[in-house]
Predict the 3D structure of the following.
Amino acid sequence: MPETATTPGYNAYGPWLRRHYGGNRVFKVIVDAGFTCPNRDGKKGYGGCTYCNVDSFTPALPRSLDQIREQVLGSMKNARERYKADKFIIYFQPNTNTYAPVERLKALYDEALAVAPEDVVGLSVGTRPDCLDPEKIALLESYTDRLDVDLELGMESIHEETLAQINRGCTHAELVELLDSLADSPLSLCLHTIFGFPWETRDMLLAHADELNRFPQVKFTKLHHLHIVKGSILAARYKKEPFHTLSLEEYTDLLCDLIPRLRPDLIIQRLFGVADQDLLIAPIWGLPKSAVQTHIDREIQRRGIVQGSAYPG
Ligand code: SF4
């Protein structure tokens, strides 16, 4: 088994969190600061990535600092009452959370982190590789003297032709350049992938493992399967000309091939994507999230899959 893996045979985030924070129950508090995205507001493009749900985008309404505070307070209260949460990671999640001047970013992050500083152990910020600069990186790094800071980057595909086809507005080369510049950074990097674009072959999908392995500064990954959701460009294409999307069995089979190739120390934050059922068009797996997780975990166990067992490094 990989040194840090628990049963089943992959290095799962939940158990890692528990170990890393001394047995505390750590929850992510999601903050929606009202950011927009350069692939929508015209800086990079207007249509957005083809899988992105237009309808889920409220017009960019920057939140006041009071609103940020209320969000954090409400989520912490809920997590304490429902899940007996002890500690929190402040997670700036929706849209592009570094897409604002650095002074504005600092005000937002500071406000969220100040709500219950004694119980906050981390800051997590989701963004695109093309929405960072040395000043913003320095700001994020400035919090690492007291917190774990995760920078979550959309990689989606490592294949440039796919990124062009999905109108990503950002190349893999740009991500690689950023990763190289962060080789010695105290930030914990997380890369997000999407598997299942119909033109990507199995070999193209499995090649993601080598690319994730290539960067030791990447500590976390989120693996997702492609969703076709209402309001996306892909949904319109799918309606006109349906194409194959991954069944749960096919996706599980892919994971069982991919996980052994991953570095054993890479922590997997997510194994599959979760979409709002009201928006999801395909694939419909017909199971709640917990049942999907159980299905995948059982199959990983049944096959004796071990993360890192096929890692050449
Ligand atoms: S997926 Fe992310 S980067 Fe792409 S359009 Fe939607 S918010 Fe922007």
